[in-house]
Specification:
The protein has about 280 residues and is α/β, with parallel strands linked by helices. It is built from seven helices and 17 strands.
Length: about 280
């Protein structure tokens, strides 16, 4: 079974000619499928796909990890490259009015930056579900990730606006992509707003596999307390994660701590990173 994962957009770029942008997008090629997981914030994913010589016309599916603009905003430029109807799988809550607000600061809209009609006009069709979706025999979306531990919590600065009022966003739409490989699970995270450990345990339950070959993507540890970092690292090591490639919302400080803990198993997963399994 051949599995290839190419990072199309991330906060940093691996070489000249590629664009870096706050956000995340990867192309997964496995089981004779081409799947885009997240689309970055604007045009970087489309630009980098072109720079890397990647033909997106055979993309089968597109997955949104959640409804924030840095994971959805690059959809329209990508659809213009795909140039055919494509199914987008996401949680119904991606269309919620999502905001970021720090104490003493004005609220800022961070939701999907285009209308559903605009995407559908370029060939998108949306499948909205809270449940896992099997894309092939070995590839499945997480659906809603249950929050099972006490130390992984939702960022208190993330909100949903309803009837003009802000309320905390439970990020029910936060999901990941799981790939079953002969070496173990490959887990691709968007932001892991509902917790990297919660997500990994959910992956094991859904797939029936315990071994974890690789974890790739955003871990949302950039503001994690020392206690949360300690608990996260201890659990990741106990679970036997073989490779850890962090991106986006992990944060440089947390990345340095993870690099020290994981040694050669750690790598930065930035725009242009190509992984073969």
């Amino acid at each position: 079974m051949s599995i290839q994962i190419t990072t199309l957009s991330e906060n940093t770029a691996s070489r000249m000619g590629l664009l870096a942008e706050w956000g995340f997008s990867v192309l997964v090629e496995a089981d004779d499928r081409k799947i885009i997981f997240d689309t970055g914030q604007s045009f970087s994913a489309a630009s980098n796909a072109t720079e890397l010589g990647i033909n997106l016309s055979r993309v089968d599916k597109l997955i949104f990890s959640h409804g924030h603009l840095d994971h959805t905003g690059g959809l329209l430029p990508l659809l213009k490259l795909i140039r055919k109807p494509v199914e987008i799988i996401a949680h119904p809550d991606i269309w919620n009015n999502k905001y970021f607000k720090s104490p003493g600061e004005p609220e800022r809209y961070i939701g999907v930056p285009f209308s559903r009609e605009a995407a559908e006009g370029l060939g998108a069709s949306f499948t909205l579900t809270a449940n896992p979706v099997w894309l092939s025999e070995n590839i499945v979306t997480s659906g809603e990730v249950p929050m099972l531990n006490e130390y992984e919590t939702i960022d208190p600065e993330l909100y949903v606006k309803e009837k003009g009022e802000l309320r905390p966003d439970p990020l029910r739409d936060d999901q990941a992509l799981f790939i079953k490989s002969p070496e173990g699970l490959i887990i691709i995270l968007g932001c892991a707003h509902r917790g990297i450990i919660n997500t990994l345990k959910h992956a094991q339950k859904i797939t029936g596999m315990e071994s974890i070959c690789a974890v790739i993507g955003g871990t949302h540890l950039m503001a994690a307390s020392p206690q949360r970092m300690d608990s996260t690292i201890t659990t990741l090591l106990t679970m036997g994660v073989q490779r850890l490639g962090v991106s986006h919302c992990t944060g440089l400080a947390a990345s340095a701590i993870l690099a020290q803990a994981f040694g050669e198993k750690f790598f930065f997963n930035n725009a242009g990173t190509l992984l073969d399994f």
